[in-house]
Amino acid sequence: MQKAVESNSHTKRFGQIHTQPYSFLVTQLVSSPKHWQAEIEGVYIESGWLDISVQDQTYHLKAGNFMFIPEGVIHSYLKKADDGVVHVLKFLQEHVIKHTFANDTKTAISRMYKNYFIAESLPAMGEIVHQIQEADFGDYNECYLCSKLTELTSYFLRYPSLIVMEKSRGNEDTSNSLRSTFDFIHEHIRDGITLEALANHLGFSVCYCSRYIKKKTGMTFVEYVNASRISEAETLLLETNDNITEIAYATGFSSVQTFNRVFKQIRNINPTEYRKKRKGKK
User: Fold this and answer.
1) What is the secondary structure of 188-217 as a DSSP string?
2) What total of structural domains would you count in the chain?
3) pLDDT tier at 31 (50, 70, 90 boundaries)?
4) N or C: which end of the chain has fewer CB within 10 A?
5) Phi-psi bin for 252: left (phi > 0), alpha (psi -120 to 50), beta?
6) Residue 122 sits in a domain of what CATH number?
């Protein structure tokens, strides 16, 4: 199981469940271009606001809102308040189901997390997020973490009026080609990845691959790769003490100058100022 907490500026990684990596993450939000994940993704707005795009529809979340997105659904984080605090939880449905005994409850949980939804929160629910975030994670704490996640889930079942918007995931294109595209880019984000390499991986012509990326992400191949690299760089700037040069090369940039230029193009601030500004708020 893993935990990445920007507010404490450290990352922890843990063992495995049933030969699969623990897929449990709690982090403060950094920007992210369109992506999909194999886990349920929950977003909690502690303060400020967040604009998020899910299946090409934009939602405005305010302080106290939760939003849960099923696995395999394409989404991106657009804008958030400069001084806002947004937490992201990623988990597998089995983390909740395995600590539930009644079949009716298991069915209700599966049905709820099949769609994406926005919900209001009660004070205790935000506290649960902090309890998970502040826990001493380890190989023997799985029960505690899953029980907290189950407790959070139970509020939505007990108080359905908290859910203010629920929408079916529909028939979005999460084909093997699209998933392979995102996976290949993120697996090779630190390498000198090229459009030609991606096209070859997918079995597409370079021309078709270029159009495909633009259609699915709204960005050119280079724009998407750069946005993904900057998203990774933001995490490293906040979670590590690595210097700018180390982060530039760790995220696949060929030079510090290129890294600084692209970072400022996308974030309107240079990496050093970004780190100082964000860490100064902790």
Assistant:
1) TTTTT--HHHHHHHHT--HHHHHHHHHHHH
2) 2
3) low
4) C
5) left
6) 2.60.120.280
